[in-house]
């Protein structure tokens, strides 16, 4: 068995789609790029907690997070109106999502409807 590759450059070449990190790693390991057909560049956007803007699909996330959170019911320590108002305010400050007090009620089916899209589309 020979250790020398008998293929020519064209036979060893591959074509495909890669993210830039993979390309940089391949170049680092000595691979060569013969031809580039297309490059797509995306701006990196991060959610800003202060302005409640930016990020990837913020409206999508906020809508399903609201459904999930309201269907989770009130936290055990929220008994009085003041505690419930404080919870809604603090939740908005942390997540940027406005909860509706009249719609906060434990509903496991509805909670799952809100949770599934969040888990299947992210991270």
TrEMBL record:
GO terms for biological process: DNA biosynthetic process. PANTHER family: DNA POLYMERASE (PTHR33568), DNA-DIRECTED DNA POLYMERASE (PTHR33568:SF3). InterPro entries: DNA/RNA_pol_sf. This is Uncharacterized protein.
């Amino acid at each position: 068995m020979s250790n020398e590759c008998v293929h020519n450059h064209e036979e060893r070449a591959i074509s495909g789609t890669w993210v830039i990190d993979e390309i940089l790693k391949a170049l680092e390991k000595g691979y060569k790029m013969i031809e580039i057909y297309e490059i797509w560049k995306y701006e990196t956007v991060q959610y800003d907690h202060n302005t409640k803007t930016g990020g990837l699909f913020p409206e999508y996330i906020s809508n399903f997070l609201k459904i999930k959170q309201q269907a989770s019911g009130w936290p055990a320590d929220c008994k009085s109106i003041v505690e419930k108002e404080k919870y809604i305010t603090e939740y908005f400050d942390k997540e940027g999502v406005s909860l509706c007090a009249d719609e906060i009620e434990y509903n496991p089916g509805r909670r799952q409807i809100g949770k599934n899209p969040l888990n299947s589309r992210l991270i």
